[in-house]
Design brief:
Layout: E1 16-24, E2 27-34, E3 37-44, E4 67-69, H1 88-91, E5 105-110, E6 118-124, H2 142-148, E7 151-155, H3 160-164, H4 181-196, E8 202-212, H5 214-222, E9 234-238, E10 246-247, H6 248-261, H7 277-285, E11 298-299, E12 322-327, H8 343-354, H9 359-372, H10 378-405, E13 410-415, H11 421-424, H12 434-437, H13 445-448, H14 453-471, E14 491-495, E15 499-503, H15 507-517
Parallel strand pairs: 2-4, 6-7, 6-8, 8-9, 9-12, 10-11, 12-13, 13-14
Antiparallel strand pairs: 1-2, 2-3, 3-5, 5-7, 14-15
Helix pairs in contact: 8-9, 8-10, 10-15
């Protein structure tokens, strides 16, 4: 085998050997070594969240003596039983690893356990605030760390009801910090990185948070948290954002209704920490579900003082540069979708979902897309328009708000590489940029296909992300000049079959959709 054989190990250990030892504040850890990169799997940054720690702010892990081996991934956070990704091509590269409440752990990938002070790239996984894990195969940071000489950290943290049950306003002093614990976990990770990453070859003063989909929502939320100020220095949001959260009043009402499902009163919250977590899960997912319960960040007034990006960019990260973007046909990942839509179905979607049931305006918008994209079939026209109206708009809005703040630059990208998988039905779909950023095109071949052109695109993108992590500017020698965003020109780096810079590439459709959005 030429490598290390570990019974029951969840990740590939081919050509892997025992790696080096790094010291943390809580004890020493030993990892694996693969292709010159040290891998530390499942390192605790906080204590188990079971028992008396359930629904509480994260607490430091217990210290240990000697050296602990971190050769295996840690537990994933609890998600809906039987839940999985909506895209089969993504599911194909997921680890179906165990879940549990002792889930506050990180995976660290580093080219050297030295004092090289490398940029640190901290991955916040997708799945909204309800699902997913930092342990997916697609998030393996080995290739990115090796290629770009950076330290990559992927996070596991509490999700859904276990991460976002708002008890702070109904439970008294003991429960005053019992809100947004899922994103408090993210801040605890950043504090762990500040305290320990130098021993893994990283620079605590050059920390980038980055994530896709829900991970973009997490990075933009952490940017709005006063407790995270100064713990990170750049931010990247890929096809994800969090402009607003759930109001504290709505979250408290939902929490009280949930307690009613469990047969508890407000003065019986301690029982939440003694019951089996499956009872909590069963109540949370049982019908009828409770709107606004455990869905994500709550505007509690302290942990998250105000809506994250509404009406302005958050002040706590005013000096943090931002990189943001989207893919061309985001919702192509759902299904995969049918190859084609009929003319009637296409017009119906443009009319009902974009033009507020105005058939004439729906036809006008569809004709515009057909004129601008004459070679696109109906299905791709619809997916493109839908994406333009949602995730592309959101990325552009982040840039506008960051520009208005006027204290740090932002950079806008658009990913339009189309995957050949599933008979070209998915296009440039949600999550497809991830393997290119991590330089994991081979590992993600079920997503990217097998063309040689993947490697050039993967090189340019991973190098741009690493350059941004290194100095706050994504430009490097192997790509066109990428100007900072401004709302006059909308400079956009296009990543696809070619890499090119375009000013306001969707201006006509952008303005048309903006007009419809305001009616």
């Amino acid at each position: 085998m030429g490598g290390l054989v570990l019974p029951g190990l969840a990740q590939d250990t081919y050509l892997t050997t025992i790696g080096g030892i790094a010291a943390t504040r809580y004890g020493k850890v030993r990892g694996l070594l693969k292709e010159g990169v040290h891998q530390f799997w499942g390192v605790p940054y906080a204590a188990s969240t079971a028992g008396t720690n359930r629904f509480m702010a994260p607490k430091p892990p217990a210290a240990w003596s000697g050296v602990k081996d971190h050769f295996q991934i840690g537990l994933n956070a609890l998600i809906q039983p039987g839940g999985e990704e909506p895209a089969p091509v993504v599911t194909a590269v997921n680890r179906l690893s165990p879940q549990g409440e002792d889930c506050l752990n990180v995976n660290v990938f580093t080219p050297g356990l030295d004092n090289a002070a490398r940029p640190v790239m901290v991955w916040m996984h997708g799945g909204g605030f309800s699902a997913g894990a930092g342990n997916y195969l697609l998030y393996d940071g080995t290739n990115l760390a090796k290629k770009e000489d950076v330290v990559v950290v992927s996070i596991n943290h509490r999700l859904n009801i276990f991460g976002f049950l708002h008890l702070a306003d109904i439970g008294g002093e003991k429960w005053a910090q019992s809100t947004n614990v899922g994103v408090q976990d993210l801040v605890a990770t950043l504090q762990w990185i500040k305290d320990n990453i130098e021993n893994f070859g990283g620079d605590p003063d050059r920390v980038t948070i980055f994530g896709q989909s829900g991970g973009g929502g997490k990075t933009t939320t952490v940017m709005a948290m006063p407790s995270a100020e100064g713990l990170f220095h750049r931010s990247i949001a890929q096809s994800g954002w969090a402009f607003r959260g759930v109001s504290a009043d709505d979250a408290s009402e939902a929490a009280e209704r949930f307690l009613g499902k469990l047969g508890l009163r407000n003065n019986q919250l301690d029982r939440l920490q003694t019951m089996n977590y499956k009872q909590i899960q069963d109540a949370y997912y049982s019908e009828p579900t409770i709107a606004g319960l455990g869905t994500g960040p709550v505007i509690d007034g302290k942990i998250i003082p105000r809506h994250q990006w509404d009406p302005t960019a958050p002040s706590y990260s005013a000096n943090v540069p931002l990189l943001m973007g989207s893919t061309e046909t985001e919702n192509g990942w759902l299904g995969p979708p049918p190859y084609e839509l009929s003319d009637a179905d296409t017009l119906e979607r443009f009319t009902t979902r974009l033009a507020h049931n105005n058939t004439a305006q729906g036809r006008q918008l569809l004709d515009m897309y057909k004129r601008i994209h004459p070679d696109m079939r109906n299905q791709m026209l619809w997916l493109t328009a839908e994406s333009d109206n949602t995730r592309r708009w959101a990325a552009q809005q982040l840039g506008r708000l960051k520009y208005e703040q006027g204290t740090a630059e932002s950079y806008l990208y658009f990913f339009d590489f189309h995957s050949p998988v599933h008979n070209n039905r998915m296009g440039s779909y949600h999550t497809l940029d991830i393997p290119f950023v991590f330089y994991n095109m081979d590992l993600g071949a079920s997503m990217t296909g097998s063309s040689q052109a993947r490697y050039k695109l993967g090189h340019v993108m991973s190098a741009a992300w690493a350059a941004f992590a290194r100095n706050g500017n994504p430009n490097h020698a192997d790509m066109p000049n990428w100007p900072a965003f401004n709302p006059g020109q909308y400079p956009t780096m296009m990543f696809g079959d070619s890499v090119r810079m375009e000013n306001d590439p969707n201006r006509e459709t952008r303005l048309a959709l903006d007009k419809l959005r305001q009616t």
